[in-house]
Amino acid sequence: MGTGTKVLAVTAGVAGVVGAATMVSGHTVAAATGTVSYRAGATTVWASPAFKQAKRYLTFNQSVNVLGSKTVNGSVWYQIGSNEWVPSVYLKVGQAATSTPTPAKPTPAKPAPSQPVQQAPTTSGQIKLQVSYQGGAVTVWKTTAFSGTTGQYLTHGQTVTAVSKTVVNGATWYRLSSGGYVPAQYLKAAGQTTAPSQPAKPAPSQPAKPAPSQPNNNEVAQAPGVANPTAVAAVINLARQQIGKPYAWGGKGPTSFDCSGLMSYVFQNAVGKAIGGWTVPQESSGVRVSISALKPGDLVFWGNAGNTYHVALYVGGGQMIDAPRPGYNVQLTAISPYWAPSFGVRVL
User: Which part of the chain is the NlpC/P60 domain (predicted)?
Assistant: First the structure.
């Protein structure tokens, strides 16, 4: 966590807790229907009430059968199937999910304008595709600008049909027959036997330099070199395992984190890489990259170099994992254009 004033406003988090010593009590409940109330992203179904093994994902307003419940360290979990558990804060039992107000986002005087979108002609025709990304759920977006999710999430190996393909700022997107868009690097042709476990390098033909809301010296050219895909996958996978754990000021894990503590923990424990314990030394843990050149596994910083106040892990597809602020939990969320990061650092 940086030393400056930390006013962090991010998309909605959810409650959860993991204690140093596990205290468990269990009881059954009458058969009931639960409805997913979390709307900021996919809700993970865990193999046990311990955030240790993800089994599948649920989406906002999806209905499930609640078979029982268990209290772990004061946090209630619902059992929705054989070895399938969801924290109670993600479900509304016995009623449909309502539209819950999300925490207010900062309102800048004027959002920074983006570079004009350069779009190539769209090709059409049905294309059978399969999800190749193995790091978690793949978000289906409403537009080709990572603005707004459709509520659909795809999982590794799932087959989908695309009705068109378009290139925007050098990045290829598929429009699905079910609606929404997915970046091509998360998909492969159905039946293709060889595909990387991590998304392919986007390689835009002309990286667009985002216009910062205020002048700064943080933007730099794309860093040379190719990231180690195995190490990147290990870091991202370990970060995903921390989703739902509570924020704690100065927390370094494994049960709670602040933003820089989370980054230090996942790099040290996934690949044995020491990057420093707070944001400013973490700025020097790799090669500086511009936001337009981010790749999965890069650190993302907010604030001017030497005085940053927040850091997150970029996981691809316009998404990041971070420990946002007190009262919230480690989360997977989209990078918001209204609270845009300042620069990235490629560690691996």
Answer: 229-348
Task: Give the domain range for residue 166.
Answer: 123-189
Q: Given the DSSP bridges, would you call strands 187-189 and 63-72 parallel, antiparallel or unpaired?
A: unpaired
Do 261 and 342 sit in the same domain of this protein? yes
% of the chain surpassing 70 pLDDT: 67
Specify whether 183 is located in the same domain as 258. no
Instruction: Say what the pTM is.
Output: 0.40
- pLDDT, tens digit (0-9, with 9 covering 90-100), for 44-70: 787 888 776 777 878 778 889 998 888
* Number of domain units in the chain: 2
Strands 138-141 and 84-87, bridge-based pairing = unpaired
Instruction: State which of 189, 214, 247 marks the end of a domain.
Output: 189
Task: Compute the distance between CA of residue 194 and CA of residue 339 in angstroms, rounded to an integer.
Answer: 38
Spell out the SS3 assignment of the chain: CCCCCCCCCCCCCCCCCCCCCCCEEEEEEEEEEEEECCCCCCEEEECCCCCCCEEEEECCCCEEEEEEEEEECCEEEEEEECCEEEEHHHEEECCCCCCCCCCCCCCCCCCCCCCCCCECCCEEEEEEEEECCCCCCEEEECCCCCCCEEEEEECCCCEEEEEEEEEECCEEEEEECCCCEEEHHHEEECCCCCCCCCCCCCCCCCCCCCCCCCCCCCCCCCCCCCCCHHHHHHHHHHHHHCCCCEECCCCECCCCECHHHHHHHHHHHHHCCCCCCCHHHHHCCCEEECHHHCCCCCEEEECCCCCCCEEEEEEECCEEEECCCCCCECEEEECCHHHCCCEEEECC
Reported as a single tens digit per residue, the pLDDT across 164-192 is 998 876 678 899 999 998 888 788 888 76
Share of the chain above pLDDT 90, in %: 31
Q: Computed from CA positions of residues 308, 309, 312, 316, in that sequence, does the dihedral angle turn out positive or negative?
A: negative
Q: What is the mean pLDDT of residues 250-259?
A: 93
Residue type, 327: G
Distance between terminal CA atoms of the chain? 21
Do both 284 and 333 map to the same domain?
Answer: yes
CATH number of the domain where residue 168 is located: 2.30.30.170
